[in-house]
TrEMBL record:
Protein name per its UniProtKB record: ArnT family glycosyltransferase
Keyword Glycosyltransferase: yes
Chain ranges passing through the membrane: 12-33, 45-64, 71-90, 126-143, 155-173, 185-215, 227-256, 268-285, 400-419, 425-444, 451-471
Keywords for this protein: Cell membrane, Glycosyltransferase, Membrane, Transferase, Transmembrane, Transmembrane helix
Subcellular compartments: Cell membrane
């Protein structure tokens, strides 16, 4: 990267974030390798397969970067991604289970005109799940109740996410890195397996990354960027309630990389107005959707968590290593939902924070599981299936891919720490670090990595392009961005 390309403050901030990113990717690599050893006979096998995976990835990235243009590369990667996902969906028997079953049954009822599910125990406790249930109901109403139809839409949303990841990577690191990021996303085993699982993550991730792309593409200088990004974040939150996290990440990014530099150029009032506009649009989407569902009698409650402390209760439970707890569920359900349950859950949180040594040990253990553990996609996509050989192959494939991603992320973080990077690249590192910090204190599942892994794929794609010799010494020019008005 040309050191003159970025402002001094931007470059130094990117390097500081990259040092923290280096620590996270190093942690991921160390504990992923440790976990991977449980599924292979020897360490030598892991190293050999890792080297083979790296060599194949570098070769593919080199060929795409050197001999294929954007249109050809995207066509090949999209067809590859679609083919793998469709093949899995057609051959996997994945009935909805757990929360996915509750939402699917509600969708079937809604498609038939029965909205009474909105007052049952599940949806009065987790009202924010109604948005995804109604999305499924719309698909069922239009195309019929076949699971294959819903799964096909999930494939389409993943393909959309792939294209957005490509666009974000171009903006952050250039064309060659974008091809690498898209390729890694297309081949990642958990993404393929989860296409058959009726989870709200597919559609929410698409809209969250689309909102990030709008923010990144012209450094939030477009006249309608605030509106489009606010709508994207708002729609995504109706599917999966991570909007607060992405909004906080956006605000930190805007302050550090947009508003503070804008003070010198006297652009900060316009930028601040656009930031407020984005937050207002997001809030209006939530309020309008909630009011509509209350007015139509679908639910008597707004679309938000009615148990704000629950994720912290289970996240700080040492008995389950910060995972879901049956005992906690039974305990809190002994009191009615509302203020009384909130008080009980807050007391549980305070009790679990009292032993500082135990808390510290728990946080370390959770971080090992969250960022080093094997992905739970085989469990969700193959529930109650007696196919141990296939399950074992899928787990081992995911483990090698994960180690590869962590290594490539480490390469990317190293180069950014040395040379600095753009604000767009720093946004990705900032979000990844924030997500890791958040899951130190709330519930962990390896499935939750899915929501932030677009950032990992983009950073790993940059690392891959470096190793493939396709690193562009001159980063993409952003000087042509529209002026703030």
């Amino acid at each position: 990267m040309e050191t003159g390309r970025y402002g001094w403050g931007e470059r130094q901030l990117s390097r500081l974030l990259a040092v923290c990113g280096f620590a996270l990717f190093g942690w991921m690599l160390a504990y992923a390798y440790q976990n991977t050893a449980n599924f292979f006979e020897s360490a030598g096998t892991i190293v050999l397969l890792g080297i083979v995976a790296l060599a194949v990835s570098v070769l593919l990235a080199f060929v795409l970067g050197r001999y294929a243009g954007r249109a050809v590369s995207l066509t090949v990667i999209v067809l590859l991604a679609a083919g793998l996902r469709l093949l899995w969906v057609l051959n996997a028997d994945t009935p909805p289970v757990s929360d996915f079953l509750d939402m699917h049954e509600a969708a079937l009822s809604a498609a038939a005109g029965d909205f009474s599910f909105g007052t049952n125990e599940y949806f009065t406790r987790w009202t924010y799940q109604i948005g995804f249930a109604l999305y499924e109901a719309l698909v069922i109403k239009l195309f019929g109740p076949s699971l294959l139809v819903l799964q096909s839409f999930q494939i389409l949303f993943q393909l959309g996410t792939l294209l957005v990841i490509y666009g974000m990577a171009v903006r952050a690191f250039g064309e060659t890195s974008a091809k690498g990021a898209a390729l890694l996303y297309a081949l990642y085993v958990p993404n393929i397996l989860m296409c058959s699982v009726l989870t709200n993550q597919h559609i929410s991730v698409f809209f969250y990354v689309l909102g990030l792309f709008v923010v990144m593409r012209r450094r939030f200088s477009g006249k309608t960027d605030w509106l489009l990004a606010g709508l994207c974040f708002g729609l995504a939150n109706l599917m999966r309630p991570l909007g607060s996290f992405f909004l906080v990440g956006f605000i930190v990014y805007a302050v550090l990389f947009l508003l503070v530099p804008g003070i010198r150029e006297r652009r900060w009032p316009a930028l601040a107005a656009k930031c407020v506009g984005l937050l207002a649009v997001y809030w209006l989407v939530q309020q309008a959707a909630g009011a509509a569902l209350v007015q139509t009698g679908v639910t008597p409650y707004p679309l938000e968590s009615r148990e704000p402390y629950w994720k912290f209760v289970v996240g700080l439970n040492p008995a389950t290593n910060g995972g879901w707890s049956y005992d906690d569920t039974v305990l809190v359900q002994q009191v009615p939902i509302g203020e009384e349950r909130n008080r009980l859950e807050l007391e549980l949180v305070k009790e679990r924070l009292a032993d500082k040594r135990q808390v510290a040990a728990l946080l370390v253990s959770k971080a090992k599981t969250m960022w080093g553990g094997d992905d739970s996609a085989p469990m969700w996509s193959m529930p109650d299936q007696d196919r141990p050989e296939l399950r074992g192959k899928l787990i081992r494939s995911e483990r090698i891919e994960y180690v590869l991603l962590a290594f490539l992320g480490l390469v990317a973080a190293t180069l950014i720490a040395v040379r600095g990077a753009s604000a767009e690249a720093s946004l990705l590192v900032l979000l990844l670090l924030g997500y890791a910090a958040l899951h130190l204190v709330i519930e962990v599942q390896t499935r939750y990595r899915y929501d932030i892994f677009p950032c990992v794929f983009i950073l790993a794609g940059f690392g891959l392009s470096v190793l493939a010799g396709g690193f562009r010494r001159k980063p993409p020019d952003v000087s042509t961005s529209e002026p703030v008005s």
